[in-house]
Amino acid sequence: MARRSSPASNNDPTAPTPGAAAAADPLAEAVAERIERVRRQRVRPDRATTLTNDFQIMSRGLRRDRGRIAGVAEAYLTLCPPALAARTSLRGLNRGVLTIAADDSSARFDLDRWLRNGGERDIITTSRAGIARIKVVIAAPSHGEPGTGRLGQ
């Protein structure tokens, strides 16, 4: 049996090549352009390798929080009776809840009475922080120097 040869396998220089036929076809060019556009869209940009932006955002938040807590501490020390302020400490401000720690149960009782008699309202209106409520806890005994770990002192 004789084998037939195709025009491309003849090494005929005048025979069209498959790439040349595709390049001359406008439909194939349009399809190739669309594919290239999709490839460019799917490529993700390189991630940022510096943390400068993250640190700037965190720094702004810390400055804002420092100002709020300083305002709360100033308002508390100004409004609270000195004998009661010496037996209590501000522990934190989280999600609108100001936590005040009392040294013992009698200090907690006195602080609770003062807060219920208008002290809570005065602190909330005087401070710049968004305080929704005030929580009073009894502080764990510390083995350090008296007055350590107290905000605003």
SSE sequence, one letter per element = HHHHEEHE
Mean pLDDT: 79
Strand fraction equals 5-15%
Could you tell me the radius of gyration in angstroms? 37 Å
Task: Please report the number of helical segments.
Answer: 5
Distance from first to last alpha carbon: 107 Å
Question: What is the topology?
Answer:
Blueprint: H1 18-24, H2 26-42, H3 52-79, H4 82-85, E1 88-94, E2 97-102, H5 105-126, E3 133-138
Parallel strand pairs: 2-3
Antiparallel strand pairs: 1-2
Helix pairs in contact: 3-5
Overview of this protein structure:
Helix 3 crosses helix 5. The model has no long low-confidence stretch (mean pLDDT 79). The protein has a 3-stranded mixed sheet, with helices on one face. It contains 5 helices and 3 strands, in the order H-H-H-H-E-E-H-E. Strand 1 and strand 2 form a beta hairpin. It has 153 residues and is an alpha+beta fold.
Short description:
By secondary structure, this protein is α+β, with helices and mostly antiparallel strands. It has helices at residues 18-24, 26-42, 52-79, 82-85, 105-126; strands at 88-94, 97-102, 133-138.
Task: Supply the key terms.
single chain, 12% strand, 153 residues, 51% helix, alpha+beta, three-stranded mixed β-sheet
